[in-house]
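Email to the structure team, subject: Glycosyl hydrolase family 31 C-terminal domain-containing protein model.

Hi all, the expression group asked for a predicted structure before they design truncation constructs. Nothing fancy, just the tokens so they can compare against earlier work. One-line instruction: predict Glycosyl hydrolase family 31 C-terminal domain-containing protein, return tokens.
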Amino acid sequence: MGILGYPFVMADGIYPSEEDANDDPKIPRSLYIRWLQLASLFPAMKYSTTPWTYDSEVVKIAQNMSSLHRKYVTDEIDNMKKEILSGSPIIRPIWWNDPLDSEALKIEDEFLIGDDILVAPVLCEGVTSRKVYFPDGLWSFENGEKFIEGNTWIEIPIRSHDIPIFTKKNVVGSLTIF
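Reply from the structure team: attached below.
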């Protein structure tokens, strides 16, 4: 939708299937947490199911995701005002900066926030790793400890609370390349 000129898109709500709703009206807790992680990285957030439907830990996770939203999305929107006014989307496909990258053109489950934040969300329960494609550039893990040269695939280990977020770096000097 962002490419079509609607900059403030949000992740669609997550609801149990009709069969699951008859037994338990909540979606599985771990899947709900993954949805919170994804939803927090879109320009607008809305809870389809309230976090307190689960437990106090999920409420805390939701609060952390709101902070993450402010850190990445709100700040990026402030930095992108001119681009947004010119029609550039906030959430971009990873081929946005290099539409001739044939690998990037195939990716359906990663996105950019602006030009410099790469998100590779985990969309399934029980995932312990995922392959991430890094477009052109030098990318850093969120904690800034390791760097990855772009135009490559890397298998990233995933823990239950991890959100694969990477930032594009313009760094001069000594680096640890992953």
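The chain has four helices and eight strands. The beta strands are 91-92, 111-113, 117-119, 129-134, 138-141, 147-149, 152-157, 165-169. Ping us if the truncation boundaries need rechecking.
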